[in-house]
Amino acid sequence: MIWYPYVQMKHMPTPYNIVDAEGVYLMTDDGRRLIDSVSSWWSVIHGYKHPAINAALKAQVDRFSHVMLGGLSHEPARALSRRLQEWLPGDLDYCFYADSGSVGVEVALKMALQYFVNRGETQRTCVLALEHAYHGDTFKAMEVGDDEDYHFILTAYGAAAKAHVRHIPTTIPALERAFAEHHAELNAFIVEPLLQGAGGMRMYGIDFLRRARELCDQYGALLIFDEVATGFGRTGHRFVADLVQPDILVLGKALTGGYIGHAVTVANHKVYEGFYDDNPAHALMHGPTFMGNALACTAALESIRLFEEGDYLSRIARIERIMRREMEGFADPRVREVRIMGGCLCVEVVDPAVLQGYQEFAAARGVFARPFLCCLYAMVPYVITESELVCITDTMKAWFAEGRASA
Ligand SMILES: *Cc1c(COP(=O)(O)O)cnc(C)c1O
After folding, report:
1. With DSSP H G I counted as helix, E B as strand and the rest as coil, what are the percentages for the chain, rounded to 5?
2. Domain count across the chain
3. Which of 89, 95, 243, 273 is most buried by a 10 A CB count?
4. Do both 324 and 254 map to the same domain?
């Protein structure tokens, strides 16, 4: 049987059984049609069963689905690398593939550490990260993360578990203090730029990232943007990396339009050159079995084409406008704050108990939702129509208006 994620199996409600999906809709085996307000963990940006991505995948399946990148190469991986090289800002040109965002983050952190080890700067063993950060569920990703659900690691391993990470809030004074005090031991500063997703849909300003870029340059640390969640328009920008350039950029989730798990860790020239020499020990020793999977690369190429040709940034701006219009004036004593950025809407409640029962309430109104912590949120597919979007926001408001939310 399936062991499901993030849930006490003993008390897990029966999950909705999905038998088909199309556009923004999930079809259940009991005949329900639900708008997916979560985009399958924020990844299905073009909706389900997209004809263009389906066709591209079918054609690739008839050639080959997968060959490894160890000693072999293939056109889908080369074409995606060329596309990313020209599409991503600045000199983010070197693409290292992995099968999930967590592994992409592991690769980025390994790159940053080894970059300095290769230069003989072996004292730079520490990573600066943000409070409430989420970077994935593998061990090093959990270590740089700061999600309460993972603090059992601290209990299990004691303080030593965090010996190589420092966490700061998203304020410029805290940032400046961290660099002033710890710059000699820092190899990288890793952030989810502008929008911290799984840590509670927290939003902060671009000035913080501009200052981070300056300080990384001043003290020689690398800046890593984990855009696994924020990439491909979620913040309203194509990538936050378009505004402030990191040295290493990690993309995942929406990279393949949500079709197949895949991620890419993109390094700039400076980082790549820190590995490129005659010493075999300076090579990047990493190689996920399914890196550069041909189906994943094919889906990603098609997804990027749709994103560009479909003028997605205008679509996302429209989604943001509608969400702002619909949530304007909404207030409730049980609500701490309503936050909106690009294709993300979060209603943060004071007490998580307020959200108990919301999933069933929403499903009865034709919406699939999955609140977490104190967050009632929507991360919609960009192909959503106005009436579908309004259905999601109406459902959120109705939860409070109809007194269904417990006090
Ligand atoms: C989801 C996520 C990850 C992990 O990606 P997986 O594909 O689930 O391993 C890493 N970083 C951020 C910011 C994420 O939102």
Report:
1. 40, 20, 40
2. 2
3. 95
4. no
Same domain membership, residue 387 and residue 264: no
Domain boundary pick from 253, 286, 309? 309
Q: Both 79 and 43 in a single domain?
A: no
| Domain residue limits at 359 | 9-50+311-401
Q: Identify whether residues 84 and 25 lie together within a single domain.
A: no
Kindly give the number of the ligand 1 atom that is closest to the alpha carbon of 230. Answer: 13
Residue 74 Cα distances to 71, 103, 151, 407, angstroms: 11, 22, 42, 58
Instruction: Evaluate whether residue 2 is within a structural domain.
Output: no
Q: Judge whether 150 lies within some domain.
A: yes
CA distances from 183 to 60, 110, 188, 226 (A): 48, 18, 10, 21
CA-nearest residue for atom 6, ligand 1, is 101
What mean pLDDT is reported for the chain? 96
| Ligand 1 mutation target, pool 42, 103, 105, most atoms within 8 A of CB | 105
Give residue 260 CA to ligand 1 midpoint distance, Å: 14
- Kindly indicate the confidence band of residue 152, based on its pLDDT and cuts at 50, 70 and 90: confident
Contact status, residue 352 vs residue 339, Cβ threshold 8 Å = no
Distance in angstroms (rounded) separating the CA atoms of residues 34 and 28: 8
pLDDT score recorded for residue 293:
98
* pTM for the full predicted model: 0.97
Tens digits of residue pLDDT in 27-73 = 999 999 999 999 999 999 999 999 999 999 999 999 999 999 999 99
Cβ of residue 100 lying under 6 Å from some atom of ligand 1: yes
Using the mean position of ligand 1's atoms as its centre, give its distance from the Cα of residue 304 in Å: 19
Q: Does the Cβ of 198 fall within 6 Å of ligand 1?
A: yes
Say yes or no: CB of residue 101 within 6 Å of ligand 1: yes
The model's pLDDT over 189-241, given as tens digits with 9 standing for 90+, comes to: 999 999 999 999 999 999 999 999 999 999 999 999 999 999 999 999 999 99
Please state, for a pLDDT cut of 90, what percent of the chain lies above it: 94
Test site for ligand 1: of 134, 140, 291, 377, most ligand atoms within 8 A of the Cβ? 134
